[in-house]
Design brief:
The strands form three sheets. The chain has a nine-stranded mixed β-sheet with strand order 11-10-9-8-12-6-13-16-15, with helices on both faces. The chain has a five-stranded mixed β-sheet with strand order 2-1-3-4-5, with helices on both faces. The chain has a two-stranded antiparallel sheet with strand order 7-14. The chain contains twelve helices and 16 strands. The protein is α/β, with parallel strands linked by helices. The chain has helices spanning 17-25, 34-45, 82-92, 118-125, 144-150, 161-167, 169-177, 207-219, 227-233, 301-310, 322-330, 392-397; strands at 59-64, 67-73, 101-104, 129-132, 154-157, 181-189, 195-196, 222-226, 249-253, 271-275, 288-291, 315-318, 336-342, 350-351, 369-377, 380-387. The chain binds ligand AOF and zinc ion. Ligand AOF is lined by residues 55-56, 58, 74, 77, 81-83, 106, 109, 113-115, 118, 136, 138, 141.
Length: 398
């Protein structure tokens, strides 16, 4: 399984709970080896892909004598954690968990948050061994693994750690960097053109790519765009092509508060406009404004992302034009690109993906990427790539 790849239900498949449930049940392993049970726990965790924000996606399987006696996943903040859900499942089924092994995709929590600490429930239930895929990067969670070991439970951490980390790339980013994971979605022609010189960009890629894009929107906590896109396309920035019980927060970067009162992105609340100055008094009261000017009188994008992280935003999905994408890229704030390429050539002059006020001085200053995946989506290609971050020492000497 690769959590870095397409989200479940991407590419037109139904995203209802039952489809995901079928996919997960078909993966129940026969052999009782650690790896396959953890893979199953990860599949359970993925059921929370669209809903757990600001919490991580976590799955849990309890195994006794190579048989699954309980399973669960975290559905949404405030609901039971995966461990508690699996313990409840076992109890509801009348299964004994004493001495059993618990496979959980995140180290059990050790602190009373919205719910009581899972370590207490695990110890009380008499679990004999806990296998966790990864440490909890949440700094307030003081060492659940040590607490379990102190209680005489065998604990192993690190099985399928990469997959677990990928599934929660945004949560890990927020906990370790104080920034969300920023993923920019771009539709372009084969020659990398995103719009005609006059700005017309509808529609370069096909319906399948657009539906796939909605699955990426659905997993994000916030969707960010620029005022240029709002003025040109009037997008609603809601998730429509896949089923989800939750809509991401909509964020418009709008230096001069030019977003029209009737813009679809402002309809029905759940929208924030980041400005560099005063709000537009004609906007409905429900529209929240964040004034975040930088020294140049533009919106401080880094401050905006830090503010979103403060509000629990793990994954940001950017759907914007070349100006905002260029500014984010120059500021080193883009982590990942999801680019749909249409089998068509537009040619120059036309708009590219990342506009810059000045030409790049040397090729050495380019942004380097690592390919993650290439897939065909309907008539288009989808390329996922990650921005290679320079090591601090390279930056200092480069
Ligand atoms: C989850 N689901 O299955 C596990 C989590 O405020 P709370 O009580 O929901 O706690 C959230 C924290 O609990 C979360 O940041 C993470 O550190 C830890 N583990 N969280 O939402 C789970 N196991
Ligand atoms: Zn917990």
């Amino acid at each position: 399984m690769s959590a870095a790849g397409p989200p479940r239900g991407a590419n037109g498949a139904s995203n209802g709970g039952s489809a995901a449930a079928d996919a997960a049940s078909s993966q129940i392993p026969n052999a009782g080896d650690d790896r396959s049970f953890m893979a199953y726990a990860l599949a359970l965790a993925e059921r929370g892909l669209y809903t757990t924000t600001p919490n991580p996606r976590v799955g849990c399987v309890i195994v006794s004598e190579r048989r699954i006696v309980g399973e669960g996943w975290h559905a949404r903040a405030g609901d039971a954690h995966a461990e508690q859900a699996a313990l409840t499942d076992a109890r509801d089924k009348g299964n004994d968990v004493r001495g059993a092994t618990m496979y959980v995709t995140l180290e059990p929590c050790n602190r009373h948050g919205r719910t009581p600490p899972c370590v207490d429930a695990v110890i009380r239930a008499g679990i004999g061994r806990v296998v966790a895929a990864m440490r909890d990067p949440n700094p307030v969670q003081g060492n659940g693994a040590a607490r379990l070991r102190d209680a005489g439970i065998l604990v192993d951490v690190g099985l399928l750690e990469h997959e677990a980390t990928e599934l929660n790339v945004g949560f890990v980013s927020r906990m370790t960097r104080g920034l969300p994971w920023v993923r920019s979605k771009i539709a372009a022609s084969f020659d990398g053109r995103t719009a005609l010189a006059n700005g017309d960009s509808r529609w370069i890629t096909g319906a399948d790519a657009r539906a796939d894009g909605h699955a990426w929107r659905a997993r994000a906590c916030a969707i960010v765009t620029g005022v240029g896109t709002v003025l040109r396309d009037d997008p609603a920035l809601t998730v429509r092509d896949v089923a989800t019980p939750r809509q991401p927060l909509r964020v418009v970067v709008d230096r001069d508060a030019d977003t029209p009162v009737g813009a679809r992105v402002l309809a029905d609340g759940n929208a924030v406009v980041a400005t560099a100055g005063p709000r537009n008094d004609r906007w409905p009261a429900a529209v929240e404004t964040l004034a975040l000017p930088n020294a140049e009188g533009r919106v401080d994008l880094s401050a905006l992302l830090r503010e979103l992280a403060q509000r629990g935003v793990n994954e940001v999905h950017v759907e914007a034009g070349a100006k905002l994408n260029g500014a984010l890229m120059r500021a080193g704030l883009v982590d990942e690109l999801v680019v749909y390429l249409a089998p068509a050539v537009i040619g120059d002059p036309a708009r590219g993906m990342f506009e810059s006020p000045e030409p790049l001085g040397s090729l050495a200053a380019r942004v380097n990427l690592d390919w993650t995946s290439v897939d065909r989506i309907g008539a288009d290609l989808r390329i996922v790539a990650r921005v290679r971050k320079l090591a601090a020492s390279t930056v200092a000497h480069g």
